[in-house]
Specification:
- By secondary structure, the chain is of the alpha/beta class.
- It contains 18 helices and 16 strands.
- A seven-stranded parallel sheet has the order 5-4-3-6-7-8-9, with helices on both faces. Strands 12-13-11-10-14-15-16 form a seven-stranded parallel sheet, with helices on both faces. A two-stranded antiparallel ribbon has the order 1-2.
- Helix 8 links the parallel strand 8 (211-214) and strand 9 (231-233).
- The radius of gyration is 23 Å and the shape is globular.
């Protein structure tokens, strides 16, 4: 996949393992973390109330509430020495799947502790567990909570995915001799600018990381600038995801209810995007089937109301079993109010509009769509996935437009009867793009194994 093995200014290392950074903080840095911890303690009641509120729509949020503050009395027993992987939400948990497969191949018998922050992440993570593994909530980043967490589980190493840099968690883990890695790491220019405001807080956290596996060279340079010491580019784990074959087959079966209609998918949309999309869709004469799949399940009902208020007939995925009825197939809009079925929606669609990219939210992961052979139209805001978005555009797998109105216009142009050959070519380019950048999982698993081996050497095997 053309990986960059190292970046300029990489810290000296032996066998891929960085020299452990000093745990001492300067006086301004100690003051910054103390102030941060005080603010978190004050905000703890509001955090717990928010968890309970989200539990109204997603009951799993309310499960094992004590774990949110570092009490794990009801957690499954797990002997010290497991490999801890933190995947905060659904996207990170799905990215962890190929990494976990690679780790099991590289380290037979490895025991895992998976932690999460969201209900969707925890639900998806349950399918990745084997006998001897465990799952828990990662606690709120107060000093006492993270201290209880690390002492309870005593992992051999901690692996954080993407952007999950928590100052107290990393400080406590490294103080207790648990090496911390950040993998599939990304740092947008926007996040770097914001991070400068709290540099005294974040710089020590980045410096304590034993190893950082960045997605791109640009990410690596930014991570070095904010204090990370041992950084290399290993690519994006999401390219190693293989869409579930059974789920893709489900999407192909749904085409039977659609008939000859073309399908436009609004994928993983965010608040505000659906209303603008529906307003634009009202101006389309003889529109194709529109499918909307919101990013957050707690918004399913609200989006359904928007569709009906806009004057469209609606069919909801949650209302049918394996396949939609003929009446569902005749509806103006389908609502994808289910979980873990994105490959089915991408296979069903002729073209997808990428949610999160039409508002200043940074966009969503487009690699899964490409892996399903679904061409994409993206908006102006893809800073969370800027490298993947630019590469997809260069490969002809995606096109960028300035707003939702332009996205609808572009999608409809791609669905013109005379554009069938071009549409097939874009689908082939999307699949080829997704296939060309695999390999990050095996390389990242190798780095993690090297860190674990180094720790075992320090402790006499």
């Amino acid at each position: 996949m053309g990986m960059t093995r190292a970046t300029p200014r990489r810290a000296a290392s032996t066998g891929g393992r960085a020299t452990p950074p000093s745990l001492r903080e300067s006086l301004p840095q100690r003051f910054a973390r103390a102030a941060y911890s005080s603010l978190l303690r004050l905000g703890l009641p509001a955090y717990l109330l928010r968890v309970l509120w989200r539990g109204r729509a997603e009951p799993l949020y309310r499960a094992a509430l004590g774990e949110r503050v570092g009490f794990y009395r009801g957690a499954p027993p797990l002997a010290p020495g497991a490999l801890w992987i933190h995947a905060v939400s659904l996207g990170e948990t799905r990215a962890a799947a190929p990494l976990i497969d690679a780790l099991r191949e590289r380290l037979p018998g490895v025991r895992l502790l998976l932690t999460h922050g969201t209900a969707t992440g925890r639900a998806a993570g349950a399918s990745l567990l084997r006998d001897g593994d465990a799952q828990a909530w990662l606690p709120f980043d107060t000093p006492g909570a993270v201290r209880r967490f690390v002492r309870r589980f005593r992992p051999a190493a901690g692996v954080l995915l993407e952007t999950e840099v928590w100052p107290n968690l990393i400080a406590e883990a490294t103080r207790l001799g648990v090496p911390m890695l950040l993998v599939n790491a990304r740092l947008s220019e926007r996040s770097r600018r914001r991070g400068r405001r709290v540099d005294a807080l974040l710089r020590p956290a980045f410096a304590r990381l034993a190893h950082v596996a960045a997605q791109t060279g640009t990410d690596a340079e930014r991570l070095l600038e904010v204090g990370a010491r041992c950084v290399e580019v290993l690519g994006n784990l999401k390219f190693d995801l293989t869409p579930d074959a059974a789920t893709m087959a489900r999407g192909r079966a749904w085409r039977g209810a659609v008939g000859e209609r073309r399908v436009v998918l609004a994928a993983v949309t965010r608040e505000g995007e659906e209303a603008r999309l529906l307003a634009s869709w009202q101006r389309v004469a003889a529109p194709p089937l529109l499918v909307i799949v919101p990013r957050h399940p707690q918004r399913f009902d609200a989006v359904a109301d928007l569709v009906v208020e806009a004057g469209f007939t609606l069919a909801r995925r949650s209302r049918w079993d394996d396949a939609p009825s003929a009446a569902d197939g005749a509806a103006d809009v389908w609502l994808g109010d289910s979980m873990m079925e994105m490959p089915a929606w991408y296979v069903l669609a002729d073209v997808a509009l990428l949610g999160g990219s039409f508002a200043p939210l940074g966009g969503q992961n487009l690699i899964e769509a490409a892996a399903c052979g679904c061409p994409l139209v993206v908006g102006p805001h893809t800073f969370n996935f800027e490298d993947a978005a630019e590469r997809a555009i260069e490969a002809g797998a995606a096109a960028r437009v300035p707003d939702i109105d332009a996205a609808v216009e572009r999608a409809l142009a791609w669905l013109e009867p005379g554009a069938a050959d071009a549409r097939r070519d874009r689908a082939a380019r999307a699949f080829a793009f997704a296939s060309a950048h695999r390999g990050a999982a095996a390389s990242t698993a190798e780095r993690i194994a090297q860190v674990l081996a180094g720790r075992a050497d320090e402790h006499g095997g």
